[in-house]
Amino acid sequence: MLKHILLSTSAAVALSLSAATFAADIDMNANANDLAIQGYDPVAYFTQSAPTKGTSEYTATYKNAIYHFSSEQNRDLFRAEPSKYAPQYGGFCAFGVTKGRKFDTDPMAWRVVDGKLYLNLNKDVQKIWVEDIPGYITNANDTWPTIKTFSDKTLETF
Asked: Which runs of consecutive H residues, i.e. helices, occur in 21-68?
């Protein structure tokens, strides 16, 4: 009986660990299905200067988050240099990071600055962020390494 319990426990732990390897990294903003940017194509922000919905036909994974693309070409560009196209701060709100928080984002509240994609919680928050983009980026760059390995729920209690 003890042997059976130990085997069952070992199997459950192994399954839990293997499932965890497929979950998006904690420093990535992805939904329950590990989909990043609500399915929007990160490359399109650069190539089309517009949010463009991707499709499950063209996908790539970065830090265990799944990205959708509107074309094979965009997917291939991302695969070649994912850190160039992936949103900063794991796709969490750039302004929120300055406050030590990891807020979700609206794919429509975006800005490419110095070749990097930044997303915000919503357009109202983005209005505040654009008032001092260089200052907020500097602040967020300093803050991100400290908060990236914590959930927002944990950060909320700090």
From this structure: 44-47
pLDDT confidence of residue 122: 98
Burial class of 7 by CB neighbour count within 10 A (0 to 12, 13 to 18, 19+): exposed
* Residue 27 burial (CB count, 10 A): 18
**Residue 153, C-beta contacts closer than 8 angstroms, at least 6 positions apart:** none
Domain locations in the chain?
24-85, 87-148
What pLDDT is attached to residue 158? 79
Contacts of 47 (CB under 8 A, 6+ apart): 74, 77
Per-residue pLDDT, averaged over 6-21, amounts to 39
Which pLDDT score is estimated for 16? Answer: 38
Burial of 69 by CB count in 10 Å (0-12 exposed, 13-18 middle, 19+ buried)? buried
pLDDT of residue 23: 76
